[in-house]
Amino acid sequence: xxxxxxxxPEHEILDYGRIRRQFMEGHDAYVxxxxxxxxxxxxxxxxxVTDAVLDGFPSPKADINWRQLMATGSDGExxxxxxxxxxxLFKIPAIARQLxxxxxxxxxxxxxxxxxxxxxxxxxxxxxxxxLHQILPGGLLGVHADFTHHVDYDLQRRVNLLLYLNKDWQDxxxxxxxxxxxxxxxxxxxxxxxxxxxxxxxxxxxxxHGHPRALQCPxxxxxxxxxxxxxTLGRNDKEVEPTSQTDWQVLPEVELPPLQ
Length: 260
What we know:
Protein name: 2OG-Fe(II) oxygenase
Shape: globular
CATH class: Mainly Beta
Pfam families: 2OG-FeII_Oxy_3
Organism: Candidatus Seongchinamella marina
Distance between the termini: 27 Å
């Protein structure tokens, strides 16, 4: 697929037929996954789409008012550092904008409902906490559970979608996504942030995840991703304390599982 970062494609860029099949076939594995419902899909988007999004991905110094995301945990240690976020669609190139629009389309959301079993999912046009993300060398994102309540729309957050955009990523660069147990006592899974890899998981008060080990990538690189979140108007599956704050965890020293 030949695409330009600054131009809209002439047709949709997601393969909805393939995605629908993958999601329907993957439902049982998703809901039964450890430590919380999730799935990992490699080569989720065409390599040409990945290349076009990367070609136009704004540099850390781009004049687009990157949000500088920093946070400190209860123990005084940095839990979010050297991270940038861009939720404003019209400040990013057309191809990335189109991809985000398609992730928020009714067609994609109907597929997502098949995977997760969660009905009546709602996209967030404001991309609160989402959009383009990049973490610079030395940066990290501590293990945490995300906010569960969208305060602007009074919606319950239910699903996270993370699409990674890192070509030729080496294990020694760190930045691997860690999924931790519900009580944050052990790391259950570590995932490389590889280009085209899509990770989808339920957003609960105890779906702990992050990459708490500082990036060791070269100075001219960053860990790039797109984050999309989905909501429902209330929820009837279980009680989840509505919160607009991130729940950062102080982690024990544990043995880490092998990389996937």
